[in-house]
Design brief:
heterodimer, A: alpha+beta, 8 helices, B: alpha/beta, Rossmann fold, Arc Repressor Mutant, subunit A, 2 domains, five-stranded parallel sheet, 14 strands, globular
Chain lengths: 416, 225
């Protein structure tokens, strides 16, 4: 729900409630006041009659009007006290209410009961009119309130929505937002806070980026020294099998270390979204090329490799596409038993690589985790599938692993 | 063949000098930007091995100066900045090759040899080793004037061993040279063995000298006088 709708809903319902309660109270107060006024005239009529009787010792002449009339009847005793009441009166087909004051007087030793009647119609008409005017005013007020609020809220919140839109595209480039100054304090405060926050994020991001780059540089140099020294020593060690083997073990370790380092660096860069994924990439060409490079390996393991490759161009990153394909192929070849099958399918929507499994299904929750290995195997870094997963994540592809009929099936959904 | 090695890491610099000197090159080395600038302005080299991050300046600036002065020196960048963008930038600025640290010295040696062969056309494209003659332009090999039929991998392997003659090269270095970085190296060790075996068989079949020695199955060496 939009803020404006929410605000309106509360505002309007509160206004209506207050006006309803208010109108009701107003109605009753007004009715009370008008009835009292009516009663006052009735009582003064009584006073006039009583005064007249007291001074003239006879009943006054009765003058009836349309709205006020007096009935006089003889009674045997005086009423204990005078009282007023409202009674309904049916006139033709209209129901009307009449206010009556009933009292008794004594004149010439005869008791009379006086009933002064006054129609409430006039009072009711007045009441109705007042209520009508009030209702109309309430209606108008609500309407104007709504219109003014709508205009005001829409205009006032425009900068807020601008800010929200800017934040939405923020993740794409991580540049400080530099939102403009606004006349409204709250929005200004929001913009300033977001500005300082995005500036800090950008600084942290740059710091992290330069840290990974520096770390990479600083680590690769000593590794380069180790490797070159080992290679030099190797030349002097000729004839000494044990030394050569040990030197080559050092070399192996240094090669593994630098590969590991490169893989972790790649993962960090992927997580930092440091790649721009908008190059047109011929995925079929890369796939065919990578398969050809590995053909020798595939043949040597007597693996039957079936391919069904459509021509596919996607907006992606050349290097990342190569890494993605290489890692999946390496994995498939490595874990297919001798004489097994590899099935590679590429269509506009999917890249599916499946291979004959040696064991059972892989652990679906863990295969894409870093350093997860099904078997202890020190020739693998345990990062291949983690990299595949991160590349897919960065590109917006969905990768799925399934185990069906002794086949490991990796499916990448290429539609973003 | 004169080389200039520009590398600020003294240990690495020294190892490269020793290795390349042993490989028959005349090496000069510097470790700062200023010293490098002086050398490249005064002398010509067949190939310059250029580190990017130098005290006092960037190797890429040296590259710009070399290109501006229309120097024909071959240039190979060696940098710890393995990022692909840096590789592309370096090549676009006119470097002949790019090698990310850490690298095998034997790989560096092959790349230098290839650059020098490309730069100088006067008969340099031919490598003679014993009675084996490799034509690096036509990518063909002859033994006693008879054409040696080799697969692409066998050819690459022969050139690699030839350039690094009389030195032990490890299986790792060969695998990286033949298959690059993105393949599982361990899987390829068996191929190296079979390629070497086939290469030796083919060379001997044409009466060539059996010059490739296995070093306890861990590395190989091409022996030449």
């Amino acid at each position: 729900m939009k803020l404006f709708s929410k605000y309106n809903r509360i505002n309007i319902s509160a206004t209506i409630l207050i006006f309803l309660v208010g109108s009701m109270a107003f109605y009753f107060v007004l009715q009370y006041v008008l009835i009292r006024q009516l009663d006052d005239t009735l009582w003064s009529e009584k006073q006039e009659v009583v005064d007249y009787v007291n001074s003239h010792h006879q009943l006054p002449e009765i003058q009836n009007t349309k709205n006020q009339w007096i009935d006089v009847v003889k009674i045997n005793a005086l009423l204990p006290n005078a009282f007023v009441r409202t009674i309904p009166l049916k006139i033709i087909d209209e129901q009307e209410y009449i206010r009556q004051l009933i009292f008794s007087v004594q004149a010439n030793n005869q008791y009379y009961q006086y009933t002064v009647n006054k129609s409430e119609a006039e009072t009711e008409d007045l009441l109705q009119l007042i209520i009508l005017v009030t209702m109309a005013m309430i209606g108008l007020m609500l309407l104007f309130n709504y219109l003014i609020n709508r205009k005001l809220v829409t205009n006032t919140w425009k900068p807020f929505y601008t800010t929200i839109d800017r934040i939405k595209d923020y993740a794409a480039h991580l540049q400080p937002l530099a939102l403009s100054k606004e006349p409204i304090d709250e929005i200004n405060l929001l913009n300033e806070s977001i500005n300082s926050m995005t500036e800090r994020i950008s600084k942290d991001y740059l710091a992290l980026r330069s840290f990974t780059e520096n770390a990479s540089h600083e680590m690769q140099t000593p590794l380069a020294i180790i490797r070159s020294k080992v290679e030099s020593l190797l030349q002097d060690a000729e004839g000494n099998k044990k030394t050569i083997q040990q030197l080559l073990a050092i070399e192996d370790a240094s090669v593994r270390l630098s590969k590991l380092h490169q893989s972790l660096l790649l993962l960090t860069k992927l997580e930092n979204r440091q790649f721009v994924l908008n190059e047109p990439v011929l995925l079929d060409a890369i796939l065919k090329n990578k398969i050809t490079e590995r053909q020798e390996l595939i043949d040597s393991k007597l693996i039957i490799c079936n391919t069904n490759i459509e021509s596919v161009i996607i907006s992606f990153h050349q290097h990342l596409a190569e890494i993605l394909v290489s890692n999946l192929l390496n994995n498939a070849i490595r874990y297919t038993p001798s004489g097994g099958n590899i099935q590679i399918e590429l269509s506009k929507s999917n890249l599916i690589i499946s291979n004959t499994a040696i064991g059972g299904a892989l652990n679906t929750t863990q295969i894409f985790q870093r350093f997860y290995k099904e078997h202890s195997d020190n020739t693998s870094t345990g990062l291949g599938l983690a990299i595949v997963y991160e590349v897919c994540l960065a590109a917006g592809f969905v990768i799925e692993y399934k185990y069906q009929q002794q086949q490991h099936i990796f499916t990448i959904n290429l539609s973003k | 063949m004169k080389l200039l090695i520009i590398e600020d890491e003294v240990l690495l610099n020294q190892t490269m000098v020793d290795f390349l000197t042993a490989a028959g090159y005349l090496c000069e080395s510097v470790s700062t930007y200023i010293a490098a600038l002086e050398k490249i302005e005064l002398y010509d080299y067949d190939c310059i091995i250029l580190d990017i991050m130098l005290p006092g300046g960037s190797g890429l600036d040296l590259l710009k100066i070399l290109k501006k002065d229309r120097k024909t020196d071959g240039i190979i960048i060696i940098s710890a900045k393995g990022a692909l963008e840096d590789k592309i930038a370096g090549i676009e600025m006119g470097a002949d090759d790019y090698l990310a640290k850490p690298f095998h010295l034997s790989e560096l040696s092959v790349r230098i040899a290839a650059i020098i062969r490309r730069k100088s056309f006067h008969g340099q494209a031919l490598i003679q080793i014993g009675n084996i003659q490799i034509d690096t332009q036509g990518k063909s090999v002859k033994i006693n004037e008879l054409l040696l039929e080799l697969t692409q991998k066998e050819y690459q392997l022969l050139v690699f061993l030839t350039v690094n003659k009389n030195r032990i090269v490890s299986k790792n270095a060969i695998a990286q040279h033949l298959w690059g970085d993105d393949m599982d190296l361990a899987d390829n060790y068996d191929f190296i063995y079979s390629h070497i075996k086939n290469l030796r068989k083919k060379i001997m079949a044409l009466g060539g000298e059996d010059c490739i020695k296995s070093i306890y199955g861990e590395g190989y060496k091409l022996q030449a006088n």
